[in-house]
Amino acid sequence: MLTRERMERMIDAKDSGEAAKVLSECGYGELTQLTSAALEELLADARRNTFRDMADSVPDRRLVEVFQLKYDYHNAKVLIKAQAMGLDEARLLSQGGRYDPQRLREDFLRDDLRDWGEVFRQAEVLSATGDPQQADLVLDRACFQEMESLARACGSAFLQGYVRLSVDAANLRAAVRAARMGKGSEFLNQILLPGGNVSERALAGARPEELAERFRSGPLAQAAALGAARTQPDSGPLTEFERLCDNAVTGYLASASRVPFGEETVIGYLYAREAEITAVRIIMAGRMAGLDGETIRSRLRQGRSLEETMADVNTQLYDLGSQFSLNALVATLSTADGRFTYVNAGQQQPLFMRNEDRYEWLEAPVYAPLGMNENVSYRSQELRFKQGDRIFLNTAGLTDLPDRTGEAYGGQRL
Length: 414
Description:
single chain; 16 helices; mainly alpha
């Protein structure tokens, strides 16, 4: 695995060639050319080798196949769309699936998919319609259906939870996009996928502003709240919404690493390996583009939200026992736009001064100290700093300190 120390060496290396040498130390092989194409080929080989080695090592290879499916279905979509548009699809095929993409391509072009699964025979029929969009819908539905079938056959409750959450994320994205396009429930009924924690019927019947309510008790709560606010055509970009959807799913997978045995250890490793490949792509692409180290580090940090980080730390402290708890206010400050995002777990509320006027206590939820309660779902608060604004952070208990007469210092004096 690529350790934090090696990642830092790659970022701080004198040039891209030196950074590539660190990769070879970690078993990635040699990056013969410092190009995007060569990098993608190297990472594709790493992903394929990981899946192959894990499938040969685990008692039930279906644990691994659940994560390979998306590459097979991606290749099926590529083949259908390329044929419909008269394009060369070879460079768009992905490694890492259960099926060799080049052999799949050859059989597809010969109209001979007898040796492939039912879904690919279905893809052969779909390609004859010349409707790539319809192929997308059918293949997405088939992909999640097969994922659910494999997870159930493995008997893994964790994997089944992953599939349901993945379906929820896909359906939430579809509902938000449909609302922005002015599409109603009839359209949603055609594209929503079955098998999620939130039923298709509940989503199709929801007004845009009700999306947050449908997902408020699960990992997608924050994404749904932002998505509901982005349902109008001119309500802003969906970039952050998409990131929150992705983070909800990856956060679920990351929790597998906290289980010391069982199928979660395999899932946790596969997730960590995929996250590592993503980090390598960010670092090497940044180095080849001439980005400075701080910019690359910033891009690496964007993968985890503040809420996810707090939830992860809370769970780890809770698992250590009740004697391990921590009062903490954790925040990020964007120097680009003055956005101050924070979560308060047991600390006193900050004092905020707008433009040298006067301090006021911030009115925002204060959660229990980290590690005190299990399964806390955090929601961050946000401020926008302008020139001259100030914030005063103070530890819990400061206002309770007594003077010589025993009187507490108090919030007003502070």
